[in-house]
Structure formats: C-alpha cells, structure tokens
Amino acid sequence: QAKLEELSGLSAEEAKQRLIESLKDQAKLDAASYVNEIMDDAKLNANQQAKKIVIQTIQRVATETAIENSVSVFHIDNDEVKGRIIGREGRNIRALEAATGVEIVVDDTPEAIVISAFDPVRREVCRLALHQLVADGRIHPARIEEVVAKVKKQLDNEIIETGKRTAIDLGIHGLHPELIRIIGKMKYRSSYGQNLLQHARETANLCAVMASELGLNPKKAKRAGLLHDIGKVPDEESELPHALYGAKIAEKYKEKPDICNAIGAHHDEME
C-alpha cells in the first residue's frame, strides 16, 4: 500500500475519494441518459395518445344527424291562381308532376301549394318552374314542359358553377366533373337544419387545421373533409349508409384510396 501511495502520489484515502467521485460522475451521466430516454418515450407516447384522443373526439362529435326536409312550400297570392295551377281536371298538376318527378299537394291550406320529393333539386326545379309559370300567366301542359326543361338546364349550370367555385375557394384541384356536380348539389340539401354545402366547407377547413396541428397532410384532410358527405347527395337510392356510399362514389370517380377511406370511415363504419 505504501509503495502504491508513493508511486501514485496519492494516499489511500485520496485515491478512494477520487474513485468515488469518478463513479458518482459516471452514475450521473448514466442516470441522465436513462431519464432522457424515459422522457423521450413518454413524450412520444403522450403525443400519440393526444392525436388519438383528438381524432376520436372529432369522430364522436361528428355523429349521424341526417334529418331531411322533404317538402317545399310555394306561396301563391289567391285561390284563383291556385285553380289555374291545378288546371282543368288537374291536368296542369299532373303535367308538372310528370315533368319534375315530384308530388304536388293541393289542399285547403290558403295561399300555398306543397311540393314533396326526397330529391331537393327536383323540388327546386318545380318551385322555380311554378314561379315562372305564374309570372308569365300561361299555364298549360305544353308550356309546363317547356318551362321545366329550361329551368332544369339553368339549375344544372348553376350547380356545376357552385361546385367549381367551392373547389377553387378551398384550393382543391383535380376533382372529377361528376364530383364537382355533386358538391354543387349540396347547396340544395340540408342536414339537421344546416345547409350541407356550408357544412362541407366548414368541415374541409377544420380538417385542414387539425391535420396541420397533428402533423398530417392538410391538403388531403381538406379534400376528404369537403367530400365526406357526398353519399348524402345521391342521384339514386342506396341501401348503404351514406359514409360507405360516399366512399363508393369517390372510388368510382378515381379519388385516392386514403381519401375514399376517410369518407367511408367518418362514422366508424369501416376501418
């Protein structure tokens, strides 16, 4: 021991203290590294859990709320106008129903005619046609067919323009023309008292913001948000829930699989 002390220039006690200090420093480094590793894992897990919670919350808030209004009311000035709309033995009403695909209810309700149809675009065609017919004064089957054909063309052009403008406003490009038309038709449909097009626009913007916050692709999220309710705007009836039907429509018109999946999964009806 004396020889070692002489060679090292340290006493046994000094050497012991230096060893202890060295071990303490190494232990601190090891502990700090271990703590940092634990904190990194905790942050990663917390971030993943936070994303999961936010996404689940959004999905739960976006519950199925499709309560459709299937009637429109056309107001008239007096019963004399109502009689002219009905026509002799109801021929004008029958011609209007045949041309527009709606059911027209004429009862004792004063100064009103009820237009009934599940498709809101058909109801709008009938309402606009009635407005033009009453304003023009010529109401007979041939004139009805002429006016309805004109209104259908005008409304279809408006629908396409609305769809295009919506996509441009949101910065969404490359949509199939039929998807553009479906988006435009949302203007004439409501869900739980809210205009469906306005709802789709709000959802698109919300999805983009949330995606940015979560580190996801905001452009894809915005596109999926805009299209998420296209299954509520069918040209034909479907037995599928609207989310799954919407995914089917999106796939038909060449939307990418992740967009189709987002549409189909927004009510947890697919993974």
Secondary-structure map:
Elements: H1 2-8, H2 12-61, E1 71-75, H3 79-86, H4 91-100, E2 103-105, E3 112-116, H5 120-136, H6 141-170, H7 177-185, E4 190-191, E5 194-195, H8 196-213, H9 218-227, H10 242-252, H11 257-265
Antiparallel strand pairs: 1-3, 2-3, 4-5
Could you describe the 3D structure shown?
- InterPro entries: HD/PDEase_dom, HD_domain, HDIG_dom, KH_dom, KH_dom_type_1, KH_dom_type_1_sf, RNase_Y_N.
- With 271 residues, this protein is mainly alpha-helical.
- Among the domains are: 71-158, 2-Layer Sandwich (Ribosomal Protein S8, Chain: A, domain 1); 171-265, Cyclin A, domain 1, CATH 1.10.472.
- The protein has eleven helices and five strands.
- It has helices spanning 2-8, 12-61, 79-86, 91-100, 120-136, 141-170, 177-185, 196-213, 218-227, 242-252, 257-265; strands at residues 71-75, 103-105, 112-116, 190-191, 194-195.
- The strands form two sheets. A three-stranded antiparallel sheet has the order 1-3-2, covered by helices on one side. Strands 4-5 form a two-stranded antiparallel sheet.
- A hairpin with a 2-residue loop joins strand 4 (190-191) and strand 5.
- The longest helix has 50 residues, at 12-61.
- The termini are far apart.
